[in-house]
């Protein structure tokens, strides 16, 4: 997606996932873990990237 906005070959140095959630009826079934792993794999880079996760039980 960065290429669409910034041109060919452009890599972002950081990513920000504002908010995601899992509906109560799908919780405790691995969907949240799968979402986080997808994001981790998507931003994987040879550079060192920190991923911070804040959780809430709301």
Automatic annotation (TrEMBL):
Q: Which Pfam families match?
A: Acetyltransf_1
Q: For the N-acetyltransferase domain, which residue ranges apply?
A: 15-42
What InterPro entries does its record include?
Answer: Acyl_CoA_acyltransferase, GNAT_dom
What top-level branch of life does the organism fall under? Eukaryota
Gene Ontology MF annotations: acyltransferase activity, transferring groups other than amino-acyl groups
Q: What is this protein called?
A: N-acetyltransferase domain-containing protein
